[in-house]
Amino acid sequence: MKTLLHICCAPCANQCIEVLQGEKLEVTGFWYNPNIHPFTEYRARRNTVRDYAQSINLPLLEKDEYALRPFVRTVAEDISHRCVKCYEMRLFETARQAKEGGFDSFTSSLFISPYQNHELMREVAERAAAEYGVRFLYRDFRPYFRAGQDKARELGFYMQKYCGCVFSEEERYLKPKKIIL
After folding, report:
1. Can you list the alpha helix ranges (DSSP code H) found in 23-81?
2. Which residues face 61 on adjacent strands?
3. Between helices 68-75 and 166-174, what is the axis angle to 10°?
C-alpha cells in the first residue's frame, strides 16, 4: 500500500517512517508546513527533512512555500483556536496530494507529538479523507516519541523548541519561569 506521510520535521518523522515501513507500507514523505516561522526556522526544518530523506532513500514530495502571511490571515480571527486551522491547512493539502498522486492513504508525523491535540488532528484528517476520497491511515505514534527524539539527537538533527508558528514561539517565551532555590 502506498502511503503519503506528511512530515512536520525530521525528529518527529524518523520513528513514523520506521513504523510504517515495518508494516511493509511504501512510504513517501510530504513536506508542507506553511505555519513555520521565522524563515530561518522553516529552512532549518525543511533542510533537515531533505537531508534525512536522502540519507534513507525516502521519496520526498515538497510543497515548499514559506507562507507566513497566508497562515496568519487564516488564523487571525481566532488565534486561541489556531491549531485547528493549522491542522486543516496541512492535512487537507496532504489528502489532496495523496489523491492526486495515486496514493492509497495518508497520515502525518504530527501524530507522534504528545504536545498536539491528537483527537482534533484525527477529526481533521478524517474530514480531509472524506473530502478527497482517500483513506486516512490512523496511527497513534506517541509511544515512539522519546525514541524519535533520541534518534534525532544521535543523528545530529536540528531540534526545534516550539511547534512552529509565530504564536507558539511567543508562548514559549511567555511561560512563567520556574524559580529554583
Report:
1. 39-55, 68-75
2. 30
3. 70
Is 75 exposed, middle or buried (CB count within 10 Å of its CB: 0-12, 13-18, 19+)?
A: buried
CB of 138 closer than 8 Å to CB of 107? yes
Domain ranges, ordered by start, for the chain: 2-174
Domain 2-174 has CATH 3.40.50.620: yes
| Closest listed residue to residue 122, CA positions, set 139, 134, 100, 99 | 139
Mean pLDDT in runs of 10 for the chain (181 residues)?
Answer: 97 98 98 92 96 98 89 80 87 98 98 94 98 98 96 93 65 61 51
Asked if 12 and 116 touch (Cβ cutoff 8 Å), the reply is: no
pLDDT at 126: 98
Which residues, at least 6 apart from 112, have a Cβ–Cβ distance to it below 8 Å?
12, 13, 15, 16, 141, 142, 144, 145, 148
CA distance 41 to 36: 7
